[in-house]
């Protein structure tokens, strides 16, 4: 039986949230390096994500869902999506956690190197369709944010957020690329597939989403590399590999994390 929001006791304070591991019904599904960002299974079919400010991520999920992508529905969140709060570590302020449906299946990274070429081809076809759907989302006029607000990235900690996304050398990147709605981390760990490994059941972790030049998604997808994923990428992007752009975006992300 599906769990209704009324059946779940949602945390009302930070203290209640951090005591959740003591609950027998709560199971940790993911804990980021350093332990701050955590995803729990709060109840059967319901997960809770905390460790930041999630207003932008929820808005991105809604945009992607409206575009036709398989995105988990948000069940509950504190705060208001109409209030734009820069994300921070402590203390929680606005949308400091959210609950969503748990996507069925397994992460693609756990099976991608064991799938047949036919199954890889089927997944590549679905990804091409998803990218096409994302490309049709109307651009809001600002790079980075989904709602036209300030640029932000989870690649840099709150205290060193850049004012705009491309502060370093961009000479190896196109200057006239179309601005598109972008997942920003569309790699196997964020792609859920069914038990047979031939159907995508959901795309998760929209925390790095927003409007970016079209090369951004391409390059970010190439930052993960295993034999099976490389086969998928060659089918999704059959043109010659744009290594100079991939390296340039990797360098930008590197400066986000250490040089700001």
Automatic annotation (TrEMBL):
The keyword Transferase applies. It comes from the Eukaryota. SUPFAM superfamilies: Protein kinase-like (PK-like). InterPro entries: AGP_Transferase (IPR051678), Aminoglycoside_PTrfase (IPR002575), Kinase-like_dom_sf (IPR011009). Pfam families: APH. One of its GO terms (molecular function) is kinase activity. The keyword Ligase does not apply. Keywords: Kinase, Transferase. Residues 37-223 form the Aminoglycoside phosphotransferase domain. This is Kinase-like protein. It comes from Polyporus arcularius HHB13444.
């Amino acid at each position: 039986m599906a769990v209704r929001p009324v059946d779940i006791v949602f945390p009302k304070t930070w203290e209640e949230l951090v005591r959740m591991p003591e609950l027998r019904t709560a199971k940790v599904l993911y804990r980021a390096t350093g332990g701050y960002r955590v995803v729990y299974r709060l109840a059967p079919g319901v997960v809770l994500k905390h460790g930041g400010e999630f207003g932008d991520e929820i808005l991105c999920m809604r945009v992607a869902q409206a575009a036709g992508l398989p995105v988990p529905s948000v069940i509950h969140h504190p705060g208001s999506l109409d209030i734009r709060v820069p994300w921070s570590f402590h203390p929680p302020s606005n949308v400091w956690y959210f609950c969503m449906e748990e996507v069925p299946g397994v992460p693609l990274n756990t099976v991608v190197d064991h799938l047949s070429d036919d199954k890889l081809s089927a997944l590549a076809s679905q990804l091409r369709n998803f990218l096409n759907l994302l490309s049709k989302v109307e651009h809001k006029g600002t790079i980075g944010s989904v709602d036209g607000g300030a640029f932000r990235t989870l690649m840099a900690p709150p205290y060193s957020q850049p004012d705009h996304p491309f502060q370093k050398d961009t000479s190896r990147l196109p200057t006239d690329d179309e601005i598109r709605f972008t997942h920003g981390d569309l790699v196997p760990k964020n792609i859920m597939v069914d038990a047979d490994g031939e159907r995508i059941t959901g795309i998760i972790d929209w925390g790095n989403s927003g409007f970016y030049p079209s090369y951004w998604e391409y390059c970010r997808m190439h930052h993960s590399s295993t034999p099976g994923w490389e086969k998928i990428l060659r089918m999704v992007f059959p043109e010659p590999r744009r290594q100079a752009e991939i390296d340039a975006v990797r360098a930008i992300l590197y400066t986000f994390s250490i040089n700001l």
